[in-house]
Amino acid sequence: MNNDLIALAASSPFASATQRVRGRRDFLKTVPLAGLVLGIGLPRLGAAVEEPKKYGGDGMPHGVQDSPKLFVAIAPDGTVSIVVSRSEMGQGVRTSLPRIVADELEADLKRVRVVQAPGDEVKYGNQDTDGSRSTRHWFDPMRRCGASARTMLEQAAAQQWKVPLDQVEARNHEVVHKPSGRKLGYGALALAAAKLEVPVRESVKLKDPSRYRYIGKSNAALIDGPNIVSGKAQYGIDTRLPGMLYAVIARPPVLGGKVKSFDAAAAQKVSGVVKVFAIDATPPPSEFMPIGGVVVVAKDTWAAIQGRNALKIEWDDGAHASYDSAAYRAELEAAVRKTGGKVVRNDGDAYAALAKAAKKVEADYYVPHYAHATMEPPAATARISGGRCEVWAPSQSPQAARERVATRLKLSPENVTVNVTLLGGGFGRKSKADFIVEAALASQAMGGQPVKLTWTREDDLLHDYFHAVSAQHLEAGFDADGKVSAWLHRSAEPTIASIFAPDPKQLAAFELGLGLTNLPYAVPNVRIENPEAVAHARIGWLRSVNNIQHAFAAQSFIAELAHAQGKDHREFLLALLGPDRTIDPNTVSEPWNHGESPQRYPINTARLRKVVERATQEAGWGRKLGSGQGLGLAAHYSFVTYVAAVVEVSVDAKGEITVPRIDVAVDCGPQINPDRIRSQIEGACIMGLSQALVSEITFEKGRVQQTNLHQFEVLRSNAAPKKIVVHLMPADGYDAPLGGVGEPGVPVIAPALANAIHAATGKRIRQLPVRGQLAPPA
Amino acid sequence: MTTLQINGKATNVNAAGDTPLLWVLRDHLGLTGTKFGCGMALCGACTVHLDGTPVRACQTPLSAAAGKRVTTIEGVAASRVGKAVQAAWLEVGVPQCGYCQAGQIMSATALLQGNPKPSDAEIDGAMSGNICRCGTYTRIRSAIKVAAGIKVEAA
């Protein structure tokens, strides 16, 4: 085992695992194999019986790692390789994390290359690229990692020159002896530095942020940018191996369905089809595992698709064949209109306050299922030889994929390697390993021959892990002074827990804490109820998750309350927020708080107030607008980040909506890569508008009705806002807690749009998508 | 056997004439820069140029491409406009996941080759067949203007 920090040129997989992919063969040579890492992560010292609860990155499975022996290698020519253990899906993590390490390391980015880690959490620490956590959890460990490596290089130089350590300083890829001006490059020092101990965590001295060159700077060029614009970037669907075959699968159209029988005769006659066979489903709850079906393996993707078209399959649909979205909506709406359901928050006595309210307002909201529709559909390539399975996949959770492949193939995880490609979009879909396990099963059936499994767009839409459909009922009471005295909110929605456990009917803490139970408004009597809802489809996390429907309902309802009182929405919202204060999140709901410490991450109403003030100021709240035009506001706290948006709409006589401008104010704490924060928020505006305006998945007879992008619509360029302006709130230094970025931009968009439509037309939108709701009667 | 002119090179392909050009490029020729997104010409991820005109490779049978000049993302930099578009994409920081961007760049290049100074409406008209699920549309518009040398209004 090579325990050196240095990687000896091309002989090391570390040194050859470059992101500068030149061609297909190079790509295959350069994908890091199992032996990438130069040391093994220390087992976590099992301390005592009563370990205090851990939060943030430390509280995630396998925690965080920060040793440069895991993440940094320096070649004799000075090239610095930095390992990224999280998956790139457009959030910019392969750009942002190495910039943190490079800055603390005093490395010149032009001499840095990025190496993608395979799935191995014991070694690298947590790899779940979800929950808006990568930079939030890894900023400090990556700073320590770079600083440790820098310290080791300084120590090596001081030893070589036989001078005191305080006389040397690392500056821009070399160590300088300050009194004499002597210099040694990182390449020359790497071997000696590698033999030193990594400094203990507490002793690591971080740079003064005033000397940052990369952290917090706006000009961060994307590490993968040149490959992306030239078509060389390698996504999961792009993997090619010698002798590779291509597969697609016909899957049961109804959740829990099975293949009753199939006739492959015609399929096998399709030119290029090699083999047709069934694979078993993991019965529901099927978690991240395949749902079965009939596999067609062929010599190219087109032949596989043609072969599948020729299959004759009889399905046994099972219990969910009656799932019908219209009927289900009626069920959910009936459930939320009735008193009752599991009480998930209860402050004071909301029912009593409602009974004696001077005025009451109530409203119902409906948000449909959505699909992720990542532009790259799920796809993975696998091969098996010598008792080892190797896969290439666009995975948000490669360590989970490794475990699931090992389980299904009955291998030990050590004999499974999951290489992580770029992801052509993730949004939560690619946290699931089902498509990766399918590829492994297809390879297994072909005697280990490499097989690329591709999901067509139809597969993707018909068999997604859907965003939960929901019905919500809200009631508020005003007291005689016109203050909100009671807030009652009932929400019925199938739970994500249903993919893990048989038939749970109530939301889990990780769903309730997404904008349902943890609202910070100053209302004395609050009651939140969660009636039962049965899941009839696979339900999954979709970017910002339950916040989508919860924020849509709550932020629309607050605007309705303002309107009912004849008050300006902004003034009403700020008054409802109450005096500036911090709220212990554990006092308003079951402990969740996105896994963060309630002390370090209390809910801070001043931060929410300030984003409301900033967004409205920037948008010119209150300005005169023409007929059919309006501004709408919404604010929401999610992923420990505070966001407010003002959407400007224009609605014409035909009910066509255009969005001239969106202003979004974001307080996510310290900003490590501001341009990528802006781009994430811009993208969140587009995704939020898609959900608000056009997207919807419906079921009939247990089957999804939208087969491709003509039916599951998403926003296109012609409907995109003319302008999106992101306003980042200044942070209090780099030691302040970081908020999430990838998701919290989404939830405010639909309610801000609905509120703008109300301002423009007087029409209140209470169900999504808006689609034809504004069309004049024919 | 069909002969294609791909990125300036004569290339022989052994596939049935009704095979979509997309799969010929990706599976037979290893030109994976052209992406699969929908298979129904709905998303634009597979956009290539056929004799300079943007087409969706998923709906273009191999037989229809025979004897024509095919330009893919791997070859678009051979043109001045293609190169300028790629550079503008990097300057503006357009890509997020990047998967759709090959198709976006092919559509944008074709637009500017036929219309060097497009209006906002012309840009939206030419680009609305290309879906970006990450939502980079506002930056795409800016980058097209940068590539065209049209003054971009500061945010």
Beta-strand level of the residues of chain A, as a percent range? 15-25%
Distance between the termini of chain B: 53 Å
CATH topology of the largest domain in chain B: DNA polymerase, domain 1
Structural class by sheet pairing and helices of chain A: alpha+beta
Domain module tally of chain A: 3
- In what order do the strands lie side by side in the largest sheet of chain B? 2-1-5-3-4
Order of strands, widest sheet of chain A:
9-10-7-17-14-15-16
Which CATH C-level class of the largest domain in chain A is it? Alpha Beta
Q: Runs of chain A with pLDDT <50, length 5+?
A: 1-48
- Measured as a percent range, the helix fraction of chain B is 25-40%
Q: How large, in whole angstroms, is the Cα Rg of chain B?
A: 15 Å
The average pLDDT of chain A is 93
The beta-strand count of chain B equals 5
Short account of what is shown:
The complex is a heterodimer of chains A (778) and B (155). Chain A is an alpha+beta fold and 778 residues long.
Mind explaining what this structure looks like?
The complex is a heterodimer of chains A (778) and B (155). By secondary structure, chain A is an alpha+beta fold. Helices cover 28% and strands 21% of the residues of chain A. Chain A has 21 helices and 28 strands. In chain A, the strands form eight sheets. A seven-stranded mixed beta sheet of chain A has the order 9-10-7-17-14-15-16, with helices on both faces. In chain A, helix 4 (93-105) runs parallel beside helix 6 (134-161) and helix 6 (134-161) packs across helix 7. Chain B has helices spanning 21-28, 62-65, 80-92, 101-114, 120-127, 137-148; strands at 2-6, 9-13, 47-50, 53-56, 69-71. In chain B, helix 3 (80-92) crosses helix 6. A five-stranded mixed beta sheet of chain B has the order 2-1-5-3-4, sandwiched between helices. Helices cover 38% and strands 14% of the residues of chain B. With 155 residues, chain B is an alpha+beta fold. Chain B has two domains: 2-71, Ubiquitin-like (UB roll) (Roll), CATH 3.10.20; 77-148, DNA polymerase, domain 1 (Orthogonal Bundle), CATH 1.10.150. In chain B, a hairpin with a 2-residue loop joins strand 3 (47-50) and strand 4 (53-56).
